[in-house]
Amino acid sequence: MATVAVVAGEASGDIHAANLVRELRTLVPDLRVWAVGGPALAGAGAEIAYPSDRIAGMGLVEAAGRLPALLDARRRVVDRFRTDPPDLFVPVDFGGLNLRLATAARRAGVPVVYYVPPKMWAWGGWRVRRLRDAVAEVLVILPFEEAFFLDRGVPARYVGSPVADDVGGRGYAPEPDLVTLLPGSRPGEVSRIWPVLLGAAERLAQARPLRFAAAVAPGLDRSLLEAPLSRSGVAVDLVDGDSHALIARSRVVLAASGTVTLECALIGAPVVAVYRVSPVTRAVGRLLVRVPFFTLPNLVAGRRVIPELFQVGPEAVAREAVPLLGDGPARRAVLDGLAGVRAAVGGPGASRRAAEAVRDHLGRRADRP
C-alpha cells in the first residue's frame, strides 16, 4: 500500500488537494493519505492529522497570530515523517509552512512533489534555491510559471489550473440587474473588505435599480456578514452553496482579490477585485512584491484585464463597477480580456494531470531496489 502525505493550509488549497486525492485514488486504488487539511480533504478520504483551520491566515500580521499553531503543525508533521514516513510528500500551496516541511521531508528521505508552489515570481525569489534543493518536481497551475522555474533549475510541469476543473461546463447567462459581492473566506479578510463592498453596493443602488447577493464561504461565521449588513443601507441576499452558479448569474461581481477572480474569468463574469491588508503587511509588501498586478486574470494576461483596487474605499469600487453594468466599450473590453485568459489557462483536467504526475513519482519510488 502506497502512502502519501498532503499539507494544505487554506480553503482553496484544501479543495485543490482534495480533488488531487480523489483523482489519485482512481489511479492508485489502495492509496493511503494522511494530511494537514480541512473538510474537503477529509471528504476525499484523507486522515486529517492536523486541521488546517488552525493555521490559515492572510498577511503578515494575521500569520503572526497563528505562529504557535504553525509551529505545532510543523512539529507534528516532521515527527510523523519519522514515525509514519510516506512514500511521497505533496505540499499544496501555503509556502510559509510547506517550504520548511519540504526541506524536512527531503532530510527524512521522503521525495517531494510540490503542487501549486509558492509565487516566487511575485516575491521571495531567494527561496528558489531552497525549493530546488527540496523537490523532485513542482506542478504549476499558471501558464508562465513553468518557464520561470525551469529557467532556475527547478523541475517543473504545467498541469493547468484546478480552478478550470471546478467551473468547467458553466454557462454564462447573466441577469441584467444582479450584482454579486464576494468578501472572501477568512475572517480577517472579510472584516476589511465586506464594509467596502457594502458601501459600494449602496452607491450603485442609488444610481440604478439593482439586486445584490453575497456568497457565504463554507465555514465562515455568518454573523461576520450579518452584523455589518444590518447597519448598512442596502439589501443583500446572503447565499450558501454554489458560488459559481451565483457568479454565472451576475452582471458584475465585486470580489476580494484571490482565486475567485480567476473563477470569474473562467466563467466569464466581469469582476472588480479589491485587496486590503493590514498597515504592516502593506508596508512590507511594498518592499518585496515585484509584479505589476496582484490579480490572477491580469497576471495571466500580462495586462490590466479587470479592475484591481488596493486599499481603496467604496467610492472607487463603485466607480469601476458602473461602466461594467452597461453594454458599452468598457464591458466589452473586459469580456474580451476574460476570453483571452480562458484561452491561456486552458480547459479542465488539471487535477487529473497532477494526479498522474504524483502516480509517476510513486512508481519511481516503488521501483527502487
Keywords:
369 residues, alpha/beta, Rossmann fold, 2 domains, four-stranded parallel sheet, 16% strand, globular
**What's the order of the H and E elements?**
EHEHEHHEHEHEHEHEHEHEHEHEHHEHHH
Uncertain residue ranges: 280-288
CATH homologous superfamily grouping of the largest domain: Glycogen Phosphorylase B
Q: How many structural domains are formed by the residues?
A: 2
Number of strands: 13
Q: What would you call the shape?
A: globular
Cα radius of gyration in angstroms: 21 Å
Sheet with most strands: 6 strands, parallel
Q: Helical percent range?
A: 40-55%
CATH topology tier name of the largest domain: Rossmann fold
Strand order, biggest sheet? 10-9-8-11-12-13
Q: Give the oligomer, counting copies of the same chain as homo and different chains as hetero.
A: single chain
Q: Distance N terminus to C terminus? A: 17 Å
Which structural class fits the helix and strand makeup? alpha/beta
CATH architecture of the largest domain: 3-Layer(aba) Sandwich
Q: Give average pLDDT, whole number.
A: 90
CATH first level of the largest domain? Alpha Beta
Number of helices: 17
Residues in β-strands, percent: 15-25%
